[in-house]
Design goal:
Blueprint (H helix, E strand, L loop, with lengths): L1 E5 L2 H18 L4 E4 L6 H13 L8 E4 L1 E3 L10 H13 L6 E2 L8 H14 L5 E4 L21 E4 L2 H7 L13 E4 L2 H5 L3 E6 L5 H9 L17 E6 L9 H9 L8
Parallel strand pairs: 1-10, 2-3, 2-6, 3-5, 6-9, 9-10
Antiparallel strand pairs: 4-8, 7-8
Bound molecules: fructose -6-phosphate (F6R).
């Protein structure tokens, strides 16, 4: 995998937004897998700025969700459908029809998982999947010990993830659902390009285990080591646990300019 160390979150957002823009110039109807949470917001802001300046045309772009809470009522502001509509679809000026996501509101969660896998396949698969990482190493909501071959299914959040996400629910951990639908690790690995962004010291240990540790279900993000085109973009703080940081910096400095992410 390629590891790129950037000075800060804004630089990471700009770098990834440019990679997305380059993809859309090559493939105007690309399917972009979008993560939620705080980390990817600089990417969406940088991409929206490129749309406003005319640097990229997103009129045919499509987006799809990585995961969704189970049991929040339709239209809840913290459902990931609402978040993606608010943070990605609206600022980019995409049609809500260009958007795919699992239904976390229905009774039949199993059917919703199967339907989402089928919808992703029918859409031709994900071209670029943007990922954040949990402090426990999760990607999507594949918590530690998720099968590395898993497909879209229901998962139970760890206490740590519910504590981490309580900030989106007014600090009330009881308001954070216990269950989620998430693309499985196998589903995520089907995307043609994986781009993981991690910022802040709180992610440093998870990043080090992901990049330099063994591939193991206890660190779900370590499955990126199995993907032929995986890029990990980290700010200085998130890179602080990487032993190979000097090598990653030297590789980046020597990288030919024609070679994108
Ligand atoms: C959410 C998702 C999660 C987050 C992770 C980090 O769609 O995929 O894996 O990326 O929980 O969240 P933040 O960025 O808020 O630290």
């Amino acid at each position: 995998m390629e590891v790129v160390i950037v000075p800060d979150a804004a630089a990471g957002g700009e770098l990834i937004a440019e990679a997305v823009a380059a993809l859309l110039r090559r493939t105007p109807d690309a399917l972009l897998g979008v993560a939620t949470g705080s980390t990817p917001l600089p990417v969406y802001q940088a991409l929206a700025a490129k749309v406003r300046s005319g640097a990229v045309d997103v009129s045919r772009a499509r987006v799809c969700q990585l995961d969704e809470y189970v049991g929040l009522p339709a239209g809840h502001p913290e459902s990931y459908r609402s978040v993606v509509l608010r943070e990605v679809v609206a600022p980019l000026g995409l049609s809500p029809d260009a958007f795919l996501g699992p239904d976390g509101t229905g009774e039949d969660v199993l059917a919703a998982c199967e339907a989402y896998e089928a919808a992703l396949a029918a859409a031709g698969g994900v071209d670029l999947q943007l990922l954040g990482i949990g402090t426990d190493g999760h990607i999507g909501f594949n918590e530690p010990c998720s099968s590395l071959a898993s497909r879209t299914r229901i998962k139970t959040l760890t206490e740590q993830t519910r504590v981490d996400n309580a900030r989106f629910f007014g600090g009330d951990i009881e308001a954070v659902p216990h269950h989620v639908i998430t693309q499985g690790i196998g589903t995520i690995l089907d995307a043609r390009h994986l781009v993981l962004l991690a910022t802040g010291e709180g992610k440093a240990e998870a990043v080090a285990r992901t990049v330099e540790g063994p591939v193991a279900a206890i660190v779900p993000a370590s499955a990126l080591q199995l993907h032929p085109h995986a890029t990990v973009v980290v700010d200085e703080a998130a890179a602080s646990g990487l032993e190979l940081a000097p090598y990653f910096r030297a590789t980046r400095a020597a990288k030919p300019s024609w070679q994108g992410l």
